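Run log, item B.
One chain of 188 residues. Sequence copied directly from the ordering sheet:
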Amino acid sequence: MKGVLILTLYYLGSLLTSDFHTVEDKFIRVEISEKISVSLPESFQPMTEDQMRRKFLSARPPLAAYTSANQLADFTVGASNTRWQTTDLPILKDFYRSSLLELYDEVDFIDEGVRSVDDVQVAYFEFTSVVKSDEDALTPKPPVHRYTYAQYTIHQDKALVFTFSCPRQRQSQWQSIAQKVMESVKLK
């Protein structure tokens, strides 16, 4: 009986702590389109239409959206309708940096810059953010704290946006995975 109790306690303890440890060590290559692919953790699944409606308030849905098994970490790929030249990447970077500062109540940039990923120049921003509740809301909600890694590039005259996001309290679990995902982006 004592052995069963110990095994039960061990099992419950592993369930409680497993949600905070990274077990996403196996990646699979996912074809977003015939021109875009990325490696994602094996447990990520495409979002359903309902999940996308709840998570994205935009009139234009992303090209692709994936979520972790517990639906806390998300990866999306979007494209702009605006035409860009590849030489416009510094302008694009400044434009999106300004947009991020306006989009959130607080932004703390961890890292940002321009680099090469698979011989393609990309602008990237790694940051934490806070969206505060509307002060005039009937039912105030707590602020939303997020960790985000966003990567932008210009491909075939369109801006492509790759975003990995999770709750800020899960940043330590997902940060290295977000970086690996962004480094795995391939464009044809």
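Observations after the first pass:
- Strands lie at 27-31, 36-41, 45-46, 64-67, 74-83, 106-117, 120-131, 144-155, 158-167, 186-187.
- The CA atoms of residues 146 and 168 lie 4 Å apart.
Flagged for discussion on Thursday.
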